[in-house]
């Protein structure tokens, strides 16, 4: 696992209470991990804080559905 992937998964694990070893890239953040819209926005904000970046909320809402989508979006900004 690369550094960005590991750190994004840590953010997701911490926020949603999902065991880190259970997180897979193809897991849908809402359907598989049970995140609601508030959880999703908090994930985006926590990822921004973790990496010191700014993500466009509209872009994130359109592009991020899976764990891997969030990893990919963050990787583009760091």
TrEMBL record:
One of its GO terms (molecular function) is acyl carrier activity. GO terms for cellular component: cytoplasm; membrane. GO terms for biological process: Kdo2-lipid A biosynthetic process. Residues 2-78 form the Carrier domain. It is found in: Cytoplasm. The keyword Lipid biosynthesis applies. It comes from the Bacteria. Pathway: Lipid metabolism; fatty acid biosynthesis; Glycolipid biosynthesis; KDO(2)-lipid A biosynthesis. The modification O-(pantetheine 4'-phosphoryl)serine is found at residue 37. Keywords: Cytoplasm, Fatty acid biosynthesis, Fatty acid metabolism, Lipid biosynthesis, Lipid metabolism, Phosphopantetheine, Phosphoprotein. 4'-phosphopantetheine is transferred from CoA to a specific serine of apo-ACP by acpS. 4'-phosphopantetheine is transferred from CoA to a specific serine of apo-ACP by AcpS. This modification is essential for activity because fatty acids are bound in thioester linkage to the sulfhydryl of the prosthetic group. The keyword Transcription does not apply. Pfam families: PP-binding (PF00550). Its main location: cytoplasm. Belongs to the acyl carrier protein (ACP) family. Carrier of the growing fatty acid chain in fatty acid biosynthesis. PANTHER family: ACYL CARRIER PROTEIN, CARRIER DOMAIN-CONTAINING PROTEIN. This is Acyl carrier protein. It comes from Caballeronia glathei. The gene is acpP.
